Amino acid sequence: MDPHVAVYGVRNALFAFGLSFIEVVAPITENNAADNAAARFVRRGPGRGAYMAIFNCDDPMARRPGLLALGLRIAAEIDAEGFRALQLHPRDCRATMIELDHTPGEQDLRGPYYPAGGTGWTATLRSDVTQGLREVVIESPTPGALAEHWARILDRPLASDAGPPLITVELCRMRFEAGAVEALTTLVVEVTDPAGVLARAAALGYGVSGQRVLGLCGVDFELRQGREAGRAGAV
Fold this sequence. Notes:
By secondary structure, this protein is an alpha+beta fold.
């Protein structure tokens, strides 16, 4: 758990999915369940979807002038014990908030990552179950325009051959699909035993349809047969 997220009225838990992370946040107390940054984001948005998409890069602060030139507002700047991050205003990003961050030494994909407590996070890896986060699906009534916007923010090329627009970052990609509202709706995860994961999810009372676990913390998890593990989200 990262103690610095308390300033936003939430506590968090990080789960290693291969060498990527999925973060779950919850109110610190029942009293502030409706009065924290994440709750306000969900309340203003479509009522589902992920709160934030986090990408690692070499130097977030060096990207600041270019982001401002795109008309993006900086929602927060973080500089704590070597960890540096920029959070962009969700209304400017559309669909979800984007954060760019960096921990010195993270070029080693099994190296330190400050929000996960330095290097201790590698002890939690369970490649026998989950091998990695492979795709993030963002929906929009205008997916092409949103994909172009994100490509400019992330400074990555946009591919849009015959299928949906795609932005590839290191070991992961963003897929933009048509939808009634703008939201980050689906995480595509490689696992060693999709049928087993689906059965366990159903036994715990979660909705299951095809290869998906539905509505888990506001997003769907689409399962794919795994191959090798990798850490996603580096730009």
